[in-house]
Amino acid sequence: MQSLNVVLLQGDAGIAQSLACALSKKFHSVQQVNSLHDLRTTIAKERARLAIVDMETASLSDVAHLVSEFPAARIVCTHRCADEELWAAALTAGAVDVCPSWDTTGILRAAMTSNSAGRSAAA
Question: Which residues, at least 6 apart from 14, have a Cβ–Cβ distance to it below 8 Å?
Fold first, then answer.
């Protein structure tokens, strides 16, 4: 188990629950939040080093602001559609990886390697 705190913002409750369960087996603490405001507050309060962010809940500018506001935190973005342009833009905004929302294994892999790996798309 990695001693990182993770914050999870997902628009779909089923995906959020599935991801939280998978992440909780690998990380010290997983906090689910329901809004971008709560995401920011929880990252700061918990000193989270990793955030899993649904691109349907947060915009590209939100991702860029998160990266700027929390430089020690790594942002892994998710989206339910395989949109290469959006995914490339998320990486340009500072996300360390982008995965399909339904790909729990890929998201977990991105989360596990985000502290040591460079920026790459998991598509």
Answer: none
